[in-house]
Recover the amino acids of this structure.
């Protein structure tokens, strides 16, 4: 077998394994869990093996024409995205084994859960915009059954909204793809862009509009204003799904695609200093404040974290929109930090729902001492999300602010103001839950109020503690990450 075909293994293996499980008659829970854990762990190992041994060659699987081809290639961005996804997918798997017991239809869930892993790796390993766009569309289709898992009225409504928004966004992104075919020297991902400068110079304003349309098209998955509504609506899905949608797979795929579009296709030299850059700087700043404000006024815990995700995704997009190496590096740092912190918060919310069927902030009064492991984890990552030094969120937010100041762009200063306002609001909506849990309004509640209130078993608590520990470590040691991200932003990796 050609060594280049090894690139396809981490993509195809979980997709095929998921399809096999879906059509199989494997109903025994323990055997199914062994099968799923084997597939997920083996695939994570495959991903890291490919990242380690890959020769950096470009692998063309199929060529439609001179410019259109299915192409795979691993660069620094691929390594970051694939590594983040693989580590968090393994941790999520064990959490989901316990959580999905009360959701039902476990075989269906884990089938699409495994398929999604492969599709996301396909996005990470894409070598050009055609390949990325193909897997981007597949991601919508393979996650739709996960969003609609409950199959009740709310789940079906969430599924319809999800599909409408994703298909609409893909249509806008497709416009960008078409114009890149016409005005690009190729569709490959090359730091600095692939536009034919002579052709592009004739139609700059039109291409700026096209970029903006494609930005918002991919921005649907990144939940930028006004295209965010699908994300909080999808909170009806099981917690392992919302954790992956809101922290790892779907939303970060949108961010990843925008990075490719901005830095590797259109190029920052073509976009920087134009009205289109200023427009997305303003929109990301508005989304940052909007998401935080909505999170503060939302009592439903998972939806609150969903709106928090909307805000934090635009932190990353703001870094991208600065169109400088420092901005991109800061955005990548926040992408990693947010993935770890937010998936932990969703797991905490899921554990509360799983154990006690409580979903709202006002329902967790006094739960802190009753569920010590859950609320310890929630407290640790909330401190990080709030950006309190030396925890993780502080470093990324500081890097974003510093990068914005360095640009000298007045519209970037609007983003700095948004970061400061959001930091205050984030502290309020996260610590509101912590205060309610540890310092209840009433000194005594009826005995029935705390019936069943306790930490879940190790399948759910151990992943939370592991993630909390990771959040502390990456917060204390940001330098290795920034060195890698700086190298990516400068085109070295």
């Amino acid at each position: 077998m050609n060594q280049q075909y090894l690139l396809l293994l981490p993509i195809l293996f979980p997709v095929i394994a998921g399809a096999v499980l879906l059509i199989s008659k494997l109903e025994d829970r323990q055997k199914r869990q062994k099968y799923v854990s084997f597939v997920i762990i083996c695939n994570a190992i495959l991903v890291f093996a490919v990242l380690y041994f890959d020769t950096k060659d470009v692998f063309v699987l199929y060529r439609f024409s001179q410019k259109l081809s299915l192409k795979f290639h691993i660069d620094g961005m691929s390594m970051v995205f694939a590594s983040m996804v693989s580590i968090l997918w393994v941790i999520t798997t064990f959490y989901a084994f316990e959580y999905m017991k009360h959701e039902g239809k476990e075989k269906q869930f884990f089938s699409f859960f495994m398929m999604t892993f492969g599709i996301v790796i396909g996005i990470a390993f894409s070598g050009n915009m055609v390949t990325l766009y193909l897997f981007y569309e597949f991601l919508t289709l393979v996650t739709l059954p996960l969003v609609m898992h409950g199959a009740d009225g709310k789940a079906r409504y969430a599924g319809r909204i999800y599909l409408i928004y994703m298909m609409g966004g893909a249509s806008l992104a497709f416009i960008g793809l078409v114009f890149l075919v016409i005005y690009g020297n190729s569709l490959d991902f090359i730091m600095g862009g692939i536009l034919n400068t002579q052709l592009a110079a004739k139609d700059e304003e039109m291409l700026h509009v096209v970029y903006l349309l494609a930005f918002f098209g991919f921005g649907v998955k990144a939940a930028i204003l006004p295209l965010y509504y699908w994300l909080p609506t999808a909170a009806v899905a099981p917690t392992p799904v919302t954790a992956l949608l809101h922290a790892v797979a779907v939303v970060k795929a949108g961010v990843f695609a925008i990075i490719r579009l901005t830095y590797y296709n259109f190029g920052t030299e073509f976009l920087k200093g134009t009205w289109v850059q200023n427009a997305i700087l303003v929109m990301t700043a508005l989304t940052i404040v909007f998401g935080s404000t909505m999170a503060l006024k939302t009592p439903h815990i998972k939806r609150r974290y969903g709106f928090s995700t909307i805000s934090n995704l635009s932190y990353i997009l703001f870094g991208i929109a600065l169109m400088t190496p420092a901005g991109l590096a800061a955005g990548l740092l926040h992408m990693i930090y947010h993935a770890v912190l937010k998936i932990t918060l969703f797991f905490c919310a899921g554990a509360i729902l799983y154990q006690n069927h409580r979903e709202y902030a006002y329902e967790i009064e006094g739960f802190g001492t009753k569920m010590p492991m859950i609320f310890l984890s929630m407290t640790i990552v909330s401190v990080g999300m709030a950006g309190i030094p030396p925890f993780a969120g502080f470093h990324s937010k500081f890097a974003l602010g510093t990068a914005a100041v360095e640009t000298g762009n007045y519209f970037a200063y609007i983003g700095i103001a948004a970061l400061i306002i959001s930091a205050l609001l984030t502290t309020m909506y996260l610590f509101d839950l912590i205060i309610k849990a540890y310092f209840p309004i009433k000194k005594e509640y009826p005995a029935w109020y705390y019936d069943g209130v306790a930490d879940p078993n190790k399948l759910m608590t151990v992943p939370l503690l592991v993630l909390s520990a990771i959040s502390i470590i990456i917060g204390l040691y940001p330098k290795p990450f920034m060195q890698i991200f700086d190298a990516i932003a400068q085109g070295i990796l």
